[in-house]
Amino acid sequence: MSTSSLHVIIIGGGLGGLCLAQGLRRVEIDVALYERDASPYTRKQGYRLHIDRRGIDALHSCLPPHLFDLCMATASRPGSQVTIVTKQLKPIKVIGFSREDSPTIVPVSTSVDRLTLREILLIGLDDIVHFGKEFLRYEYLSDGRVRAFFSDGTEACGDVLIAADGVNSRVRQQFLPHASIEETDVRCIYGKTLLTEATHSLIPDFLYRGFAQVVGFRFSLALGVVDFQQFPAEAARKFVPDACFHTTGSYLMWSLNAKRRHMGMSDDKLFGLDGAQLIQFVLQKTKRWHPTLRALLAAGDPEATFPIAVRTAVPCQPWKSTSTTLLGDAIHAMSPAGGSGANMALRDAHTLCQALKAAAYGERPLIPVIHDYEALMLEEGFEAVRFSASGGVLRR
């Protein structure tokens, strides 16, 4: 039960919004979260996520101990390097991780399954997470509060409105109409190959030591294994016995990447292909690649294969702080190349939670703590955007 008078409204139920909701609940601040999707399983959003010290620290701070332990138990086995190889699997470069890396762009320390992490972040929030709530707009009330309006005709009022609604954020579009999202020329086809007895034997050893990138003339292939230390259902029996998980087992995540012109078809056609057609397209574009790679791609799950267009935020100048603010992709969306998107959303959630805690318990006024959060979030967030746009760790 809340012991503060502050009520926070979060728009968006992705990783950042849910992490913030968990953190606020943990410090007994009243919070409600509204997500437009009908359920956590409505849209495909990718699979393997890099989680580094930024994300781990945020989860440790915001989650109750048993949920943090569940996150760590279900994480993949930690990696120690990024491997760059040719399309014939000949090594080009190995990038190891060390403690001497930048304190703001820290190396990958483990990886997680996105859906499993989201399901963990949802545990215990049934009474505050509302699905099927499409946000339309907000307005400030005469008493200083904020009212949010939803497409089903309902409304919600709070002292603070948080935009955690991703790259297409409607809150950002109203609050910061000048803050723009730029479409890059990069297209990716994401896929997932389950590790069965047949496919497990095909995985190159270097993939068990971390992420890998296959470089070709026009196409590249990103590869990452999620090898659960404990399967979610098994781990849940110890930490949260009644939790339900939808993961189907350990897997190889892959992503074929190229500039739009090299795809050889319009976006309308590319995004109109079904999963089986996308896999055939990937195989056609990699027909001269190493047979092991092609076998792994051919074994991909058609239901788990989809294309994306990479978009990135354009750095913007600070604004006058109010009781509305933003986190994660809603303000600093970035290329997946740096492995920073999820980590920055989680870090934002942690930083903002601490700021709101200070305001809720009378340590500092609300607007100044939001201002300080925004200053740090913009500096770190857009540093990560630039790092990702430059190719991230692969450019070292």
From TrEMBL:
Looking up SUPFAM superfamilies in the UniProt record yields: FAD/NAD(P)-binding domain (SSF51905)
The molecular function GO annotations come to: monooxygenase activity
Q: Which UniProt keywords apply?
A: FAD, Flavoprotein, Monooxygenase, Oxidoreductase
The membrane spanning regions, by residue number, are none
Q: Which residues form the FAD-binding domain?
A: 316-364
For this protein, the record's Pfam families field holds: FAD_binding_3, NAD_binding_8
Question: Could you identify this protein by its name?
Answer: Monooxygenase
